[in-house]
Amino acid sequence: MQIGIGLGSNVGDRARELALARGWIRGLDAGAHFSSEYETAPVDCPAGSPPFRNQVGEIHWSGSLEALLQWMQEYERSRGRRSVRRKNEPRTLDLDILYAGRNWVQSPRLDLPHPRMGERRFVMEPLAELCPGRRIAGLPGTVLETANWLRGRGGPLCRRIE
Q1: What are the φ and ψ backbone dihedral angles of 50, each rounded to 5 degrees?
Q2: For the domain that residue 150 is a member of, what is the CATH number?
Q3: Where residue 73 falls among pLDDT bands split at 50, 70, 90?
Q4: What does the alpha-carbon distance between residue 55 and residue 59 come to, in Å, rounded to a whole number?
Q5: Number of domains into which the chain is organized
Q6: In the chain, which ranges are continuous DSSP H helix?
Q7: What confidence score (pLDDT) does residue 83 get?
Q8: What is the DSSP string of 71-86?
Q9: 62: exposed, middle or buried (C-beta count within 10 Å: 0-12, 13-18, 19+)?
Q10: No. of H helices and E strands in the chain?
Q11: CA-atom Rg of the chain in angstroms
């Protein structure tokens, strides 16, 4: 199944962190593909948080979603993300599973599609670059339609940089 992964970094060499994460994700699926990087304002983060670099990737995955989440969290920690932290504090790397095919998944550790992805330009604009016509459960239209709607509302900075 196709798995969407959000990547973000707002501490240290953000471009390098995303490049290393892309390499790690390609180790899970050599056919992984990625959007451009976007400079984005922090959303729901503590005051004074630095801007993010964000992008979205997509992989083909046939294993356990719980195992994928665990590996992603272990990789985040290997890049300096603390296990115990304040909500949305600055971080060297943030990886999120955004969707798993057309499936709805609710478990103690996973809620897919990501419950806030349709509200976030830093997810929807890069995702529209990868798969504009895709329909994801919970979104009112296609990925591109949702991204355009968010763009029309304005809001925090989300600028393609690559």
Answers
A1: -70, 160
A2: 3.30.70.560
A3: very high
A4: 14
A5: 1
A6: 14-28, 65-78, 121-130, 143-153
A7: 66
A8: HHHHHHHHTT--SS--
A9: exposed
A10: 4, 8
A11: 15
